Amino acid sequence: MFIKKLEQILSGHRHSKREFVISKYTYEDIYTLAADIRNSLKSIHETICVCTEDKGIIAATLLASLESDSTMVLPYAFSEQAIREVRQVVGFKTAVTDQPEKLPPEINPVVPDPYCSVDPSFSLISGPDSVFLKFYTGGSTGKPKIWSKTPRNMFEEAFYLSQRFNISENDRILATVPPNHIYGFLFTVLIPFVSSAGVAAEICTFPQEIRNALQSHSATILVSVPMHYRILRGGEIPGDSLRIAFSSAGKLNKKDGNYFHKQTGVDLVEIYGSTETGGIASRCQAENEIPMELFDVVDWKVVDERLCVRSAFISPEIPRDSEGFFMTGDRVRIKDNNKFLLLGRVDGIVKVGGKRVDLEEIRNKLKQIQKVSEVIIIAMADARGKENEICALVQGSIDKNRFRETASKIIEPYAVPRRIRIVDEIPVSSTGKYDRKAIERLFLTGMADK
C-alpha cells in the first residue's frame, strides 16, 4: 500500500492546479521545478545541500532526489555558519537555492527554473529503503549530527500523520517553525504535499505576526513550538478558522496549552519524537492528558525505565537490539496499555556530592515559585572540574536571593542551585528550543554570580 501511494504521487499530483504554497506555487509548479532540478542533477552523484527556506523549492528538490543518485541534505539553518559546518562534514559542492548570492563562492548553485518544459513525472530509482535525505542538526544541543532518512521513513510517517489527524485538501497550514527542521519539514512540506493541503509561505515568529497570519490565511492548522505558545499567552488569539494546532521540539507548558485552548476552542496536540526516531506518540493538552499515547504503528517496550521503540520512521543508522528496538534517552513509566508518562532524560540524572539529582524534577519544583515564568536547570563542572554544580537560569521578576531562599525550602540542600542567573528572556534557537550553548555561555561569563 505504501509503495502504491508513493508511486501515485511521483506520477503526478491529483490536485495539480491547487495551491501548495499559498499565493506562490501550485502543485503543478512544484513538479515543474522538480523536473528542472532533476535535469540539473543528472551528472551529479553526491550530496546536494538545500540552501533555502522556500517550501516549494524544498518540496521540488525532494521529488528530484527520488530520481537521482544525489542525496539531499538540509542544514539546521540557512546561514553562512550552518552551510560551512555541513560542508565540512559532508563535503558537498552543489546547492539548490533561490538566493545564490548568499552562497560561498566555491559552491555551485542550482537555481530551479519554474518555466522549464521537461517531463514532470518521476519514479523511485533507488528503492524505498535507500538513503535519499539527511538532516543536519546542530546549534541548540552543542552536538551537531547528521541523521539519514529513506523514502519509507519520511513518506510512511507523512501518510500516517495525515490520516491520523485528518489533514486534507481543505486545510491551510501556518507554521512558526522552519522547513529545514524535521518537524517543520514534515508538517509544512511533506504532509501538505501528500494530503493536498495548502501551506503559508512565511515563517512567523513574533506574536502579532502569528495572529495576523492566522487571520489573513484563514489557517485551519497551526504548527508551532512551546516557546511560541508561550509568547501568545496573555493576548487574543484569533482561532475562528482553526480546527487543530500542533506543538513539538520540546515539552509544552500546560498553562500555555490551556490558555491557547480557551482562546481558540481547538485541540492542541503535542507530538513526541526526535529527528532520528520520527514521531512516537502524542497527547492532547486541551483534554489535560498527562500521558503520551503511542502511535499505533510504533512498537514499544521499557527497559530499565528507558523507552525503546520500533517503527518504519527510524533512521537507518540507529543501533537496534536483536528485535529491532532502539533505546531512546528518555525515561518513562507505563500508564495503561499504550500510554506512558515521561520522567525526563537519562542524561538529566547527575550526581552532586554523591547524591542523585533529577534535573527535570528540580526544574518542575522551581517553576512553581512566584514571579518565576521559566527555569532551565543544567549541571556544569565546578572550578576544579571534579564535581557537578547545579545551575539555574531563571526567567522572571524575582530577586536572586529571594529565589535561592525559596528554593532551599522546597528542594534538598544538595540540589539547590549554586549558580543562579536572572534574565528577562531565556535564549532560544530558530526552532524554538532552548539554546544550550548560549545558556552555558551565560554561566561561564558569570562565574561570580553565585
Please, could you describe this protein's structure?
- Strand 23 (388-396), helix 11 and strand 24 (419-423) form a beta-alpha-beta unit.
- The N and C termini lie far apart (60 Å).
- This protein is α/β, with parallel strands linked by helices and 450 residues long.
- The longest helix is centred in the first third of the chain and has 14 residues, at 27-40.
- The mean pLDDT is 86.
- Helices cover 29% and strands 28% of the residues.
- It has an 11-stranded mixed β-sheet with strand order 10-9-11-12-13-14-15-19-18-17-16, with helices on both faces. A 6-stranded mixed β-sheet has the order 6-5-3-4-7-8, with helices on both faces.
- It contains 12 helices and 24 strands.
- The chain is globular and about 70 Å long.
Which features would summarize this protein structure in a list?
450 residues, eleven-stranded mixed β-sheet, 28% strand, six-stranded mixed β-sheet, alpha/beta
Q: Gist?
A:
This protein has 450 residues and is α/β, with parallel strands linked by helices.
Distance between the termini: 60 Å
Compute the number of helices: 12
Rg (CA only): 23 Å
Tell me how many strands there are: 24
Enumerate the strands of the largest sheet in spatial order, edge to edge or round the barrel: 10-9-11-12-13-14-15-19-18-17-16
Q: Indicate the low-confidence ranges by residue numbers.
A: none
C-alpha geometry: globular
DSSP helix fraction: 25-40%
Overall average pLDDT: 86
Secondary-structure-based class equals alpha/beta
Beta-strand fraction estimate: 25-35%
How does the major sheet shape up?
Answer: 11 strands, mixed
